[in-house]
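This section describes the prediction task in plain terms. A model, or a person checking by hand, is given the sequence of a single protein chain and must write out its three-dimensional structure as a string of tokens. No templates, partner chains or ligands are provided. The sample shown here is typical of the held-out split.
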Amino acid sequence: MSEDTKTACATFPFFRPEREAVVDSMDCLGHVEWLKDYCPNKMVSAEQAVSRIKRGSRVFIGTGCGEPQHLIRALVSDLNLQDIVVYQMLSGTLAKYVEDQSFTSRFSLKLFFISEYMRKAAFEGKVDYIPAYLSQIPSLFSSQRIGLDVALIQVSPPDRFGYCSLGVSVDITRVGMENSKLVIAQVNPKMPRTWGDSFVHVDQIECLVLHDEPLWSYVPSPRESAIEQRIGHYISQLVPNGATLQIGFGQLPYAILKYLDGKKDLGIHTQLITDGFLPLFEKKVITNKKKTLLPGRAVASLCMGTEKIYNYVNNNPMFYFRNSEFVNDPAVIARNDNLISISSALEVDLTGQVCTDSLGYLFFSGIGDQVDFIRGSAMSKGGFSIIALPSTAKDGKVSRIVPSLSEGAGVATTRGDINFVVTEYGIAELQGKSIYQRVMELAQIAHPKFREELIEVAKKRHYIFADQLPPHEDDLIFLEGYKTAMQLQDGTVVEFRPLMPSDEFAYRNFFYSLKEDTIYYRFFYYKKLFSHETVQKHWASVDYRKNMSLVGITSMGGRKEIIAIASYAQGEEEADRAEVALVVREDYQNLGIGSHLLEQLENIARENGYKGFVASVLRENTGMIHVFKKRYADAKVLRGEGGDVFIVMDFDAGDAQS
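The expected answer:
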């Protein structure tokens, strides 16, 4: 064995048994000898490779955990390199040098996303940010709108046919390489060999630098918190079994994955794979069986994490890596039925505008993949998007639901694109909603201490009625225990939950949908108007303890509507009895909905110290009398002064009949 080969083998160690399949069982000697036979002139040191870069060159560097660290270090160390413009999607290694004035005098950094490692430098103006949709970055290179001279990439060792893999960084790396005049590749045995459109033949590479080193690791700081638990709880309510998911970049999307472990047959079509997915793969929560585009395959273009996830994607045919132009194309995304996009934001204003890339005038992250996936999910059959964010920032001192975006903040997602917003205080559904409704939905999920302020600003801007009551300042997380559902014989699912301030229009629509006789039975006269004032009066009495209202809701083609309302209120004469009333829309009567609502109201009333119900019912309303008597067989039915009866119901008697 020659001395060159011995040196190469020392740098390029044998594969561990579990990784040998990556390169058709070729060992170190096999790689080196194959490359020496096939392209001996391409095998150079890092220093020799970067010496070919000319002054003033525009250099592309591979993304994130796939970046060629050894080549980057050689690039920075070569003092002959001057006036170099560097383009990179997500930068890590260069963060070590941006504080050095000699570095910033020689290199100009242009980033498509500001990583946490680069934020300080971005705030200080030491790096330049290029706002762009991730799906459109490849075309910036291929159209030469952004010209490239050199590409520094990292690849796996070649197989016996000469094909290397871009591994965990296909995203914009492939197109960056294809549109550069000089391609320098760090060949690293620790780079996984991924399936899909990740393969690059050595003929496409001018310089091959053999260097073994661990890939850059990305592990969000673990911070299990009650806020993340609650946000994860709400998101799990929105995600059905069989959905295909996109999970955005960041700490919060990473953390909420664990709260989806009770789902079945989820699919993946996402920009980024992280360690957060691993438990869902291992538990078979993610199977990709229900996907309509590339079923059985988890589609991605980038992987960032630890050696554990790198080993998992290594030579795993379940993963299908493509470039960002494909993965992030809204038209491609929409080919997945039931595609749910989950991403985060810095702040959301009361009209639904979302900021993701800047805190005021300070660039904080990037547009990234959010808009691509929000628009793709909107076009997906059964798909929708979720923006998840904590309700506050700066240790609770600042609301992230704001009257208007901060001065200088950029609108990444417009108010016309937004669907669901989730905080630790609940779910706001904005799609198709007016400004008035959006204000009420978003104020409802803001931190309690900011709700009144948000409502007051909205009044001044004439977003809402001048007499609008603010949402309760209490933390109403306990209302989650009051949510139930029942399936009717025809398969329709009716969801039951407490009435909320944002239900005003749905509440009015419900009453206007009722027949005159039904309204007469409920109100004892032919009530014609259900005005804003009427609804306000009803909602003002609801404190979710002594006074409660539940609604029954069905989904009709993605549109939810109220089909039943049941309420109790503290009685005027006996403090331990509540007055109860309920009404069910005619087409849903005699299906058990009234009985279910009565049972749920009783459970809540018991928690709040009540011992029974009373009700005033018209004598001819035999259906309602039957509902009460069915549950409370020992109820006392007393004649009223007019055409009504007064029914007294004891909960203990109800227990006896249950």
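For orientation: The chain has three domains: 3-210, 226-266+284-289+328-460, 481-657.
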